[in-house]
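In the current project phase, the collection of sequences with tokenised folds has grown. One resulting record follows, to show the layout:
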Amino acid sequence: MSRPKVMLFSHICGDSFITGAEKYLLVLAGELSQHFDCTLVVPAEGLLLQEAGQRGLNTIVHPIPLVWSMFKPEGSVTKELEEKISRHEHGGIVNLLHMHQPDLVITNTIVNPMPAAAAKALGIPVAWFITEKASAERDTAPAVRWIDRYADWIIGISEATLQPFRAEGLTSKLSLLPPTWRKEELHPEQWTYNRLQRRAEWGIAPEQRLVGYISSSLHPEKGLEHFIYMALKVCPAVPDVQFLIIGNTTDKDYMERCERRIQASGYTHRFHRVSFESNIEMLYPAMDFVVIPSLIEEGFGMTALEGLIFGKTVISYRAGGLDEILRTTGNASGLVEKGDVIGLAMKMLEKLTAAPSELGNQANRREAEEAFGFDTYRLRLSRLMHQFQLRCAALTAERMASPLPPLWMNAVYKSPTASAAFLIENGVKRPFRSSEAFLFYKYRWGDIHEVHDAVLHRYPTSIPVSMEAPFHSHRPSVMLAKGSGPTVYLLMEHRRFPFVSVRSIRQRGWDPERIVTIPDKELTALELGGTLTETASPSVKRARRKRKKQRPVSRRKAQVRPGKRKRKTLTRKRPAKKRLSGSKKASGRSKRKAAGRRRKAA
């Protein structure tokens, strides 16, 4: 029995670093692939595509339209979404789903609604993974209700991401699946060496304490200015402390403002700046403290969890999932109210003056492992996978039990939403590889019939129609063809039936203009069938029937065949004579008959 098919849609695929949402989807795809046939769809080539390929996952590069207003929704977000759907902006994804026919579609992030809309049009179940918290400053209800309408499961990576749905009373579809990590991929045996090597590279002595700030991209919402303000408050009080800023510049003006502030402070020599790299095991071991002054409601806050995994002391603003992580792992003492930069500096001084504890670092790792480790992740995911499998099995059984919708065989169909055309034959649908293939086989654009997406999706997708070799595997199963000679053949499956004339072609409902010229070797490769001769035309048949009806009936009694029911004998009656009225003028024929009778009487 074949395994259910799952398609996972990533909202982005960066070429310089992998975001937390991308990492999350990559781990999810890897785990699901043990029980499902998974395909990861990315909007462009990048690091996620490379990582997925290295892990043996099937991948497809395909455009995925995003709706950024879902993150900061307004009252008009529902109207905007419906307008995008009415313009068929999800049509490309509908095409993709028709081609691959997954049993389940997974979309990640709140700004990635088009895969869900496309799947619903085809009747495919949707699991929507919410990896961020919608802006609390806006009315999230319209966006939340729209997600509930199109999703069969809503899975949050933290309670913070699920809070807007709980506020609307939408609890039946909700599940929690926080991120995790693979310990072996972080190479713990190399941490000590990495610490010494990187500190030497950055000019930091082994005895100096290092406070780190890390973000894949540096922009105002991540709170770098708050980190700098905190550091400048700490510098005079703690002479040996150093500060590390890790991240890629995305806002040049913002970064220049931050650098000017450091330069004006007189403590430039105590700050170190490096670019972000995806191999985090080369970065975290060098730090002693990790500070996360995020000014947005984080969906989870993987940076905090990573800090704990590497055994570091973590200080963070109470911002969405960051609060959950520190409280769950027993590190609530590292929390500061969001935006309280004075409180952040005081908390940092408090942690710096406390005696360092290796036992505390080990406890951080242990608590993080218990709350968010791979075993815990797999246990939570197994419950979801069981639901996925039950739904897929039920839909498969329903399809098997019900007949296919009635469509004309050997006809071309498409949906109003998507651009792909399909040839329906032998109970399957075959996409045309290209417009060139469509025209090569003498199809016309007027041949295409429109049908609802869900009806078309019921037909299994088979080999595309193309001009590729082997020719007979990719051509339409029924078609007109000829080689270099004059004879035209009807190709049906693996046989060829010669026509005797153009008239015999037309008599069987075929258009001689649809004849495709193919190489002789392709024709002779097929078994020769019976000759298709001419049949009597309808006009000849009608004339024969008319003559038969006009044949005179015998005056004798009709002979009755043995075993047949005796019919009443029909006799031809003479018409009654008409008397000519004196007031009416008789016809010429009547006059002649009357004169003849008078002569006989005389």
Q: What stands out?
A: Residues 14 and 104 are 25 Å apart (CA to CA). Residues 580-586 have pLDDT under 50 and may be disordered.
